[in-house]
Amino acid sequence: MSLSPLTTARTAALDAIQPASPSRVPLLDALGRFLAQDVVASRSLPGCPVSAMDGYAVRAEDTSGSNRDRPARLRVVDTVYAGHLPSRPLQPGEASRIFTGAPLPEGSNAIVRQEATVVPGEGLVDVCVAVPPGKDIRPTGEDLLAGTPLLRAGQRIDASMLGVLASLGDTHVLVRPLPRVAVLATGDELVPPGAPALPHQVYESNLILVAALAREAGALVVAQERARDDDEVLRSALRRLASGADVLVTTGGASVGDKDRVKSLLAGLGASFLVDGVALKPGKPVAVARLGTTTVVVLPGNPGAATVAFDQFARPLLLRFQGVSEERQRLRVRLDDARHKQAGFTYLISGTLETREDGQVWARIRSQGAGQHLQNIGAEGHAVLPPGRADFAVGDEVDFERFDRPRFFPVVP
Q1: pLDDT the model gives residue 206
Q2: Distance from first CA to last CA of the chain, Å, rounded?
Q3: Rounded to an integer, what is the distance from CA 183 to the centroid of its chain?
Q4: Interior/surface letters 250-273, b for 16+ CB within 10 angstroms, e for the rest
Q5: Which of 128, 147, 348, 390 is deepest in the core (most CB within 10 A)?
Q6: What's the pTM?
Q7: Contact at 8 Å (CB) between 294 and 264?
Q8: Four-residue CA torsion sign, 248, 249, 250, 256
Q9: What is the DSSP string of 149-187?
Q10: ω before 19 within 30° of 0 (cis)?
Q11: What pLDDT sits at residue 96?
Q12: C-beta of residue 375 within 8 angstroms of C-beta of residue 282
């Protein structure tokens, strides 16, 4: 089997997938999804000058020289609450009782906080401080001016963004739909968790693993099934699951053994393969195919290999469906362990980062195995051992691709 280089294979798979058409959804339904268009502020926040404090709206010049011993006495002519308009403008020697968020009366240009005043009688207020123009006033557009670029296409929507959109009066936002994902685990050796398992049998973990990885990538998991290594059973499951999903992810039956039948059965159903085998370890047997309108990602059955292959192929495909590409932070780090690898292959080795006293960043790489789960628990990223080289010594520099805080960019179809 001819193996494609990792970057070439991933590009071939992604280029064949177009983002789904966007639609407008209610704000809360957009949480965690990706914006499909830039958002520009439709109004200023606040929309007019408002008070930042409870107190009195005044003309700053009327408070000149005021203090506790010689307060400025003003006549209170109005009370203004948030959400209500002033009933009249201020004239010299006048004040308006005002509350936080209320619009300023015409003629006023400062706020005197309530605690800096004394009420000597009904309709009067003594101002015990001198305030400059603009004191405790939130001007129009202090938070945001109308027409300001606010959010960009490709951003993942969080609660703060939804709050801002609601504050602009929006009820819906344009996003890409969630890709519908079906997961099929194959193998006679698999036993569902919770059932008795003999020593030669394996508890099926890939269904929950892959479904969780799909959800982390923003997908909606619509089906999870397991199937025996039987052609009729597998063929029926592949056809049925593909018909109800945008992306079908299979695990197991991906290599060249007698019972590794998933790829040949897909071909028999008319699937066209975009990728079939990659110079990647772990995850070499991974394949990507199109079966009708459904994208099928064929993962190895070993959990460690399935995790890496999903990360490199299924995750980018699911994100592209949502209209974005992902860019992870890459660091140059030193290896804390020597490694021998097969030249021509890219190796992705999970690990954590350690900054030592001299400021050098080291990758603490873990014992790796295609069938292992534990190597990925708490991992901060992958040390990338590139093709074209077989031996790496302790202290050699390599790239380290971090999992956390990725950046997302809109896909231009």
Answers
A1: 83
A2: 32
A3: 22
A4: bbbbbbeeebbbbbebbeeeebeb
A5: 348
A6: 0.85
A7: no
A8: positive
A9: EEE-TTPBP-HHHHHHHHHTT-SEEEEPPPPEEEEEEE-
A10: no
A11: 98
A12: no
Cis-peptide into 282, omega within 30 deg: yes
* Nearest-angstrom CA–CA distance, 408 and 121: 62
Q: Where are the alpha helices (DSSP H) in 69-201?
A: 159-167
Model pLDDT, residue 229? 83
d(CA 295, CA 184): 13
Contact of 154 with 35, CB cutoff 8 Å: yes
Q: What is the pLDDT of residue 196?
A: 74
| Residue at token pair 């502020």 | 41
For residue 242, the surrounding DSSP H or E stretch is: helix 231-243
Q: Work out the number of other CB atoms within 10 angstroms of the CB of residue 357.
A: 5
Residue 254 · residue 299 · CB < 8 Å:
yes
Tell me the two tokens of residue 127: 């101002």
Residue that has been written with the tokens 């990538």 in this structure: 217
Residue 5, class by beta-carbon neighbours within 10 Å (0-12 exposed, 13-18 middle, 19+ buried)?
middle
Average pLDDT by consecutive 10-residue portion of the chain (413 residues)?
88 91 96 95 95 97 95 97 96 97 97 96 96 97 93 95 95 96 85 72 80 96 90 93 96 68 93 94 94 95 92 97 95 93 93 91 77 74 93 94 93 76
Residue 321 DSSP SS3? helix
Q: Could you tell me if 274 and 227 are in contact, meaning their C-beta atoms sit under 8 angstroms apart?
A: no
Nearest of 186, 208, 188 to residue 198 by alpha carbon: 188
d(CA 377, CA 336): 19
Please give the Cα distance from 42 to 149 (Å, whole number). Answer: 10
Q: What is the pLDDT of residue 150?
A: 93
CA angle 290, 294, 298 (to 5 degrees): 60
Nearby residues of 56 by Cβ (< 8 Å), 6 or more positions away: 74, 76, 95, 96, 97, 98, 111, 112, 114, 117, 125, 127
In angstroms, rounded to a whole number, what is the distance separating the alpha carbons of residues 205 and 192? 8
Tokens of 15: 């280029």
Q: Residue 270 — left, alpha, or beta (φ > 0 → left; ψ -120 to 50 → alpha)?
A: left
- Residue 117 CA, chain-centre distance (Å), reads 49
Helix, strand, coil distribution of the chain in percent, nearest 5: 20, 35, 45
Contacts of 160 (CB under 8 A, 6+ apart): none
